[in-house]
Give the backbone structure.
Amino acid sequence: MAGMTPAPKENGTGYSSLVAPLLLPTWAMIGIFLVLPVLLMAVYSFLTKEFRGGVIWDFTLAAYDQFFLNRGLFGDEPPTLEWTYITIFWRSIWQAAVATLICLIVGFPTAWFIATRPPKARAVWLFLVTIPYWVNLLIRTVSLKFLIRENGPLNESLMSIGLITDPLPLVNTNLAVQLGLFYSYLPFMVLPIYAAVERYNFALSEAAADLYASRWVTLREIVLPVVKPGIVAGCILVFVPSLGAFLAPDLLGGAKTFMIGSLIDEQFRGSQGNWPFGAAAAMILMTLVLIVLMIYARAQAKGEAR
Amino acid sequence: MKGVRHYPGFLPMAVGCLVILYAPLVVVMIYSFNGSTSITTWGGFSWRWYADVFTGPEAPRFKAAAWNSLSIALIAATTATAIAVAAAVAMIRGGRFRGKSATFALINLPLMVPEIVVAVACLIFFSTIGLTTGYLTILLAHITFCIPFAYLPIAARLQGIEDTYEQAARDLYATRGQAFRLILLPLMMPGILSGFLLAFIISLDDFIITNFVKGAGMETLPTAIFGSVKQGIKPNIMAISTMMLAVSVFFVTLSYLVNRIGQRTRS
């Protein structure tokens, strides 16, 4: 708490003269250990790879070239579009989108239900929904894997009640990864929608009902447009971390469900790695996320202007 | 007619949501008390895997990892909370100043950048400046990403405290230091505590960034668990998971209660 000693000449409770020293630790920590590293990562994506991991300080576009272009086995053919990494990115976007959709389908009714409870029950429900978020993500993912694995409790109980005869092969499928992402980030969907529904003026629904609109028409025509900001916020909060997720695809998926997180991780493991390529992939991921966030910010600004 | 708030099917959906959220955790909790060495068959209730965690062949590894996790979480959360208190006072009591919105964006930056990107960037940074990855690098990274988590509850609390109390203290000749220490700090305390607890859990929880900047031979609990799980889910891992789960739930409940007491004292 340096900088809190009073300066004798000043008066008033404002801390305006102390703003710089009070903010210095924040600027220093986030500046040195986040902003600077990200800038350095951008530089690294233009460097030459060293074979034992690390880089040689020679500037080149090789990492991005490897990402986007295929020049044949010996690098002498005319370049064509390289699909390997674009496919991995496309798959990640797809998986994250499906996970977001499942979260929305489950999260909206849940959020609505919680927001329409009496205040005491509401607090309990909210608390129950938030607790899992604070439980270690690794532990949650491992638990899910334990539950849905081939001879795990889910398959055994489904078989014992006769619903299925053979265990469902869930682990190592796209569905398992989507389920894992959905399970990881569901609270992120529920909370912002809850906040929006809580502020919703139910007189609007009553007016619609008076004018003979059915429940579902009211939901579609009145409620959804009003609580849309909450829904969009929830979708962003689920989609963005899902896109770069590592644990769910790594533990629940297999080779066919390889996602961006694992691709980047691989570039920094042992002697097989390629640091500039990993940095380039991370740059592309960050660019994607920034685009999503910017679209969101612009939509929000437009919504407020109205 | 049940009113416009009611939609058929939303109750089962909400209940289903809770079931989905809790089923895996409950199942692992139950199986951590399984007396059998096989994870598929039930061999009666037993504490053996908890004993195994503390005295079994992997015990030294887990103990070292637990010590690293807890000490890093404690130091990182304390430091991040101190930084966040200073930042919150400047942002909310500092009036208008140049760079305020940029600072706000900077504080929230660790929440926006994907974790894997932060991990890669930190690894590259530490390796460029020649800092050997290990305890210190984990700690520095943790302090950084804990700042927004500590900041948000503290700032929210401070926003709700009117500055009339401090002004009264200053009118009665309290120095700014005294007004801060005796008036503002106690009023901010619920926010500070809840910020600290959240930062503590976030640090304890982190896997991806830690895994990148930990260096060889250094383990925290999540990285140690991840290493074990790669060879299959063993019962002792379920026992550790259950214990970590209990710790998380304890801290969240504590944070929740602190916040509620805070709200009561304010009104």
